[in-house]
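[Automated response] Your request has been received and processed.

Submitted sequence:
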Amino acid sequence: MAAATLHNLLGTLNDSLSSVSSSLLDTATLTPPSEGISLLDTKNELLLAYLQNLVFLIIIKLRNKQSTKESTTRISLSNDITKNLVELRIYLEKGVRPLEAKLKYQLDKLLAT
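Generated structure:
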């Protein structure tokens, strides 16, 4: 069961990394927004935070698997990280994705230039 969970976590990590690497742009052409934080900046920050939490969760799961007894601290930390992952996923799916759908034409036009 633990091997299946680890396999699923690694699969999710691979999917997330593929998504991030496919959405990267050339940093030389990017300029910071003059009117504040852009949607794309927010999305990138959320994806990065999601990946960091996911990697941290995998490390904790691996350490729990290696040790013979699971400490309550690690279990508590694992639960906290899982809550953070759910929260970040909701931000991405319920917050960023609908905004991207509304701004799809403008984003495609911006990225085409």
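Summary generated for your ticket: The CA atoms of residues 15 and 21 lie 10 Å apart. The chain has a mean pLDDT of 81.
If you did not submit this request, please reply to this message.
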